[in-house]
Amino acid sequence: xxxxxxxxxxxxxxxEDGDARxxxxxxxxxxxxxxxxxxxxxxGFKRVVRANKCQCLDQCAFGxxxxxxxxxxxxxxxxxxxxxxxxxxxxxxxxxxxxxxIPEDQLTGLDHxxxxx
Length: 117
Prior knowledge:
- The protein is of the alpha+beta class.
- The chain contains two helices and four strands.
- It has a four-stranded mixed sheet, covered by helices on one side.
- Strand 1, helix 1 (29-42) and strand 2 form a beta-alpha-beta unit.
- The longest helix has 14 residues, at 29-42.
């Protein structure tokens, strides 16, 4: 079984029309996911880096959203035109694409200091 070095998750969630949060799908996430998969494969990353589509990552205000694991780098407002830069700088060069990073203090989700009971 192949063990990937990195996973890129692209939110392709769809919400009903009129939802105040909007959705990544309506903002072009499908095209981002397709470009990531196609371009990673073309650059020889098959079985090394896995581009995955996923449902809601709870970062709707920043969609389309791509998160890179295991590093936990969250990219927001990603367009198909950004894909080459993410691959060249982050995947190949190990450098985070700062202009696309969702600041940690703006990420939604559980506060690390609390737990649900």
